Amino acid sequence: MEHIEIKKGINMYFIPDGKFKTFTASVLIYRKLSRGEVTKNSLVSAMLDKGSEKYADMRAIDMKLESLYGTNFYNHTSRRGECQLLRVGVDAVADEFLPKGENNQEKALELLFELLLKSAFSADALSVEKQNLRDAIEAAKNDKRSYAITRLLEEMCKDEPYGTNTLGYVSDIDAIDAPSLMRHYRQMLDESPIDIVFSGNFDMEAARDICQNRMAQLCERDARYPETEIKKEVREVCTVTEKMDVTQGKLCIGFRTNTDPVGDDYYALVVCNMIYGGSANSKLFNNVREKLSLCYYASTGIERYKGIMTLQSGIEFENFQKAYDEIFAQLDDIKKGNVTEHEFDAAIKTIEGSLAGRYDSTAAMEDYYASQIMLGTNMSIEDYIAKIKQVTLDDVVRVADSIQLDTVYFMEGEDAK
């Protein structure tokens, strides 16, 4: 991966791979996750493909994209630790696979920067997007599995920025109008760290020249990414039970991993998570779900930036205590080193396969390396795999022993006793 600094706080990164017929170019804008602006950021993202100085509306933009051999424009927000990341970019066909003189890369990048820097936030388009966002926030409750995890994180991190709902809040929508949203977006462009990441098959020099020229209008800014507080001490376990219109209970559990996200123990934590509940070969899947039939599903995931691990499961209401006890029995087994050779090897191979799969997509490669950039590790996929292969069972036991229960959330039926 090659790096060029355009100016302080604005950087370019290149991940060339000639085996692809396409390239991905992403502009990443980093904001501190906060209750005060999360709703605005969601609306900004939604508005970036609704019109600009050159293209009056979505139809004009879509026609332009089609003329560029089906170039895809994407715009969305995500959470990485206590950072809200706005990602805006294009997927386009590389010039070498098109008739001579087409210059698709230049045209696709010019469109990207037109929409990024010259978007027009019309009142009519914003009215539609405000209603779409309101509907999305309210509809999130309908997916009870996803909503249960959202509620777990809200309770677990209620005094931390990470507990903020990344979609936004209905109560904030009405106060946002087109002029205030545009002012907010201009502030984002003026003060946020920005990375531009290219992956796939592209002309590096031409890409550099276009990006440097179009970003020249922006000023220097603080080059530091928004920091994430990693809370390591659990003084009291929080237990929350909510009644909702469900026929299946949702048991979600939050843990503090107490593991440095950029230290060597993090790779042991990745393996530990995979053994515990990260795949179909995990202890939770094979024992709690398959052998004991105590849940419909059970899985775990880790949030590297925040230092937490979450568990989600679907259970019968009356099986709460049995499932709860067995879920912790499986974690205790790992802490005691009761991991079979098959469980350990399967975890390593699953992680290795997942990482190697990143090479199959320009977007997946961009996402992986963008994560490395933000962490400051800049580790290649090959080196990451090597780190995973170096993990021993003793390493897994050590990191497992550091995992602390923080919050238990249970969604039960309205008629449950």
**Shape verdict:** globular
Q: Compute the number of strand runs.
A: 11
Distance between the termini: 57 Å
Average pLDDT: 96
Radius of gyration (CA) equals 23 Å
Largest sheet, in brief, is: 6 strands, mixed
| N-to-C SSE string, H for helix and E for strand | EEEHHEEHHHHHEHEEHHEEHHHHHE
Which bin fits the share of residues in helices?
40-55%
Give the spatial strand order of the biggest sheet.
Answer: 1-2-6-3-5-4
Number of helices: 15
In the predicted model, the low-confidence regions spanning at least 5 consecutive residues are: none
| SSE class | alpha+beta
Q: Which percent band covers the strand fraction?
A: 15-25%
What can you see in these coordinates?
It contains 15 helices and eleven strands. The protein is of the alpha+beta class and 417 residues long. The model has no long low-confidence stretch (mean pLDDT 96). Helix 1 (38-47) crosses helix 4 (123-139) and helix 9 (265-278) crosses helix 15. The strands form two sheets. A six-stranded mixed sheet has the order 1-2-6-3-5-4. A five-stranded mixed sheet has the order 7-11-8-10-9, with helices on both faces. It starts with a strand and ends with a strand. The longest helix is centred in the N-terminal third of the chain and has 17 residues, at 123-139. It has helices spanning 38-47, 58-67, 104-117, 123-139, 144-156, 170-173, 178-191, 204-215, 265-278, 283-291, 320-335, 341-356, 362-375, 381-389, 393-402, and strands spanning 2-7, 10-16, 22-32, 72-80, 83-93, 194-200, 238-244, 249-256, 297-303, 308-315, 404-413. Helix content is 44%, strand content 22%.
